[in-house]
């Protein structure tokens, strides 16, 4: 895929609004998320990046006062349709959170949990293969292969985050949403996650929320700049950082506010 050809759209949002009670947190956002590219959401604190990210796999459903309006599709299918199975949706559109949150179970069980509840690997040998493949894809296998039955919570923060990525990968998702996945990690663990994002690009559509503009520039090919609930500008990452069209984007990336 070259940057000149039109990339395939994996998810589309049209005129999305999100309310928390009377707070209007997302105001008419429309965006296409590509299959082939990593998309970064940037913007100052409270601008709605995480809120919008959560609309993409209906995580806002878990917040009682949250209300979502507008259309969001996955491969053309409306994810807010009553016919959509939300458990299935969250397997197809996986999520990795700010703070690594492994289950208090073994490394093996952390990865096996999702495939087991989705009935993806009924035979033990199949499950062993899924666990190994997921840990390999998450760049963790070599570090944990001899201690698969140790607790996931005993790993370092960076390893825990890669375990959470392996857990998301294990159910064979199509999209992976990452909400500031490196904010609790040191620079070396952060570099490993960024490297991993490069390796996973193409296999999964990836959307990452980040506070760190250098990180957005390093890992993404598309960047969306949010401000006060609006999507101000969306485009090729290098253009957003070197030649933004909107004054508000320019002010943000040059550090005038944030
Ligand atoms: N669970 C919630 N209940 C009520 N209001 C919320 C909730 N979550 C977010 N908000 C509000 O919605 C707006 C957008 O918040 P959101 O966390 O999406 O922004 P953000 O850009 O991700 O911020 P940050 O970078 O600080 O994480 C803010 O005004 C916030 O206070």
UniProtKB/TrEMBL annotation:
Which keywords does this Swiss-Prot/TrEMBL entry list? ATP-binding, Cell membrane, Membrane, Nucleotide-binding, Phosphate transport, Translocase, Transport
Record-linked CDD domains: ABC_PstB_phosphate_transporter
- Indicate whether Translocase appears among the record's keywords: yes
Localization annotation: Cell inner membrane
The record places domain ABC transporter at 11-253
Q: Which GO terms describe its molecular function?
A: ATP binding; ATP hydrolysis activity; phosphate transmembrane transporter activity
Q: Could you mention a single GO BP entry for this protein?
A: phosphate ion transmembrane transport
Q: Gene3D superfamilies annotated for this entry?
A: P-loop containing nucleotide triphosphate hydrolases (3.40.50.300)
The membrane topology term of the UniProt record is: Peripheral membrane protein
Task: Please give the GO cellular component terms listed in this UniProt entry.
Answer: plasma membrane
Report which superkingdom the organism of origin falls in.
Bacteria
Q: Return any one Pfam family short name.
A: ABC_tran
**Which coarse location class applies to the principal site listed for this UniProt protein?**
membrane
Describe the function of this protein.
Part of the ABC transporter complex PstSACB involved in phosphate import. Responsible for energy coupling to the transport system.
Q: What is this protein called?
A: Phosphate ABC transporter ATP-binding protein
| Source species | Sphingomonas baiyangensis
